[in-house]
Amino acid sequence: MAENGEHNSFSGENLQAFDFKGNAADKARTGGWLRAALILGIELCERLTTLGIAVNLVTYLVNTMHLPSAQSANIVTNFLGTSFILSLFGGFLADTFLGRYLTIAIFATIQSLGLGILIVFTALPQLTPPPCSPNGHCKEPSGLQLFIFYLSLYLIALGTGGLKSSISGFGSDQFDENDQKERSQMNNFFNRFFFCISIGSLLAVTVLVYIEDNVGRSWGYGICASCMVVAIGIFLGGTKKYRFKKPTGSPLTQIAQVCVAAWRNRKLNLPADVGQLYEDDKACLSHKRIPHTDQFRCLDRAATVDLSVEESCYASPWKLCTVSKVEEVKQIIRMMPIWATTIMFWTIYAQMVTFSVAQASHMERGIGNFEIPSGSLTVFFVGAILVTIALYDRIIMSLARRWTGHQQGFTALQRIGFGLALSCLAMVAAAVTESKRLRVARAHGLLDKPNSIVPISVFVLIPQFVLVGAGEAFIYAGQLDFFIRESPEGMKTMSTGLFLSTLSLGFFLSSLLVSIVNLVTTSNSHPGWLTNNLNRGRLNNFYWLVALMSLLNFIIYLMFSKWYTYKDTRMVGHLNMQLTESKPTKAAEKEYMQETRDS
């Protein structure tokens, strides 16, 4: 995928582009901006669907399905987590078997199927529990009703995961990176790609949420399904004009090969001279040789040759790997602490589309005669993202560039750090706001009225939405930059998978945390922190807990970010060591440094 830094050109060691008949692609008749634009409609509809379902699902599950608020929040976070984790599965299929075009077509169809089932589910009264009785007794959904609901929801998640893994990559395939004009067009494509994501998000949290609350959910989901069907038709209509790339295999296979080979050779002694480790000189003619590093020496056994065994026995990469392949796996391991400490941000993000929406539903949302849908409060979240990006590009970057000397203003790790710090402040703001809401509810005698509206403006929730939105603007860009630039050259397709997996695990961590808190704080005499009646619960304590966890995570992140050495810095250090040892001529030194920069 191009956002992974993958080379998508037409010559040299890069992948050859083909037309739909399998012939070499004619640049005059295939690809380019017009064909790439046909792909963007599916991304807009995917974001419209996923966010349109997620931001307003808690209120539906509590008020219509009569499920507990904690369980409802977990359903939403599990849905989002599954959507992102399945992008790894979709990426594996695209890289290994199907290719990006077929992956998009198949998974867009799967998502449309899930939407169709969800439309029927929300339209037929027989598939949802009856309304609560006047005495407050509410019947929960039956097993069949839940089965149909989960079937629709996770078909949509499966479709979303497959689409996320391939849309941006297939769009970048339409441009030749060696062509200066097309390279510029590809940069514009990614700007338009993010624009479509933002438009889809805005439509989801405003127009779609309003239709779901005031016209009917089946109408809202029907709009999503209709848009997706039209987008698929437009996408398929451009088939004859697209450029295609053959699947090249999944980087997960390479990681498995190194681990298996290291385990098989675990009894071998590592050579004292690292120059004796195995390297395929023929392969290095087309791929840059990666210098050996001393970290994680146990993996060097994957490149250790057993001299007592015939060379033919090492034909399989599951028995012997090159030093370069081993070093690529080492680089992925070095990135893991940074990867792990960014998960917490997305746990906080999950609270914005679950409990923060539930908070809004119990507060005054009126502006004159118009009542704001509770799910539409996330418009401040999306708006904060766009405003922060604009300010960063126009003002912050130029000021920071003078201060740090870095071309992008702040490094990737610094931007991630800003995002984590802002998310921690957001949870503090959320806890303070909820404490204030509970005091007002207590003062007005509303503790035992679960469906009452507390006389406090919903706009006091804006700080927590704005802080998380601004944090996402920093951390989203920082994570993409970090994973793209730091991922090994031979494993670039893995960078987006690493990024999306942090989102997935963040949502799953939220589900786990909610379950544990609900279990520990609930007893026969106490309703627990996350009870259905928010006025009786202690959601503010839950927010304080998440804020404390976020602070500890931020401190750990600072330690690992200080420990981490950028890949370019290590390469320069290795170059200086070689120059010191070999004392080359000025011409040789200049040639080597130019080769390093080109790589």
UniProtKB/TrEMBL annotation:
InterPro entries: MFS_trans_sf, POT_fam, PTR2_symporter_CS. One of its GO terms (biological process) is oligopeptide transport. It is found in: Membrane. Its main location: membrane. It holds the Pfam family PTR2. Keywords: Membrane, Transmembrane, Transmembrane helix. One of its GO terms (molecular function) is transmembrane transporter activity. GO terms for cellular component: membrane. The chain crosses the membrane at residues 75-94, 101-124, 144-163, 189-211, 217-236, 338-360, 372-392, 412-433, 453-477, 498-521, 541-560. It is a multi-pass membrane protein. The keyword Transmembrane helix applies. Belongs to the major facilitator superfamily. Proton-dependent oligopeptide transporter (POT/PTR) (TC 2.A.17) family. This is NPF family transporter. It comes from Pinus pinaster.
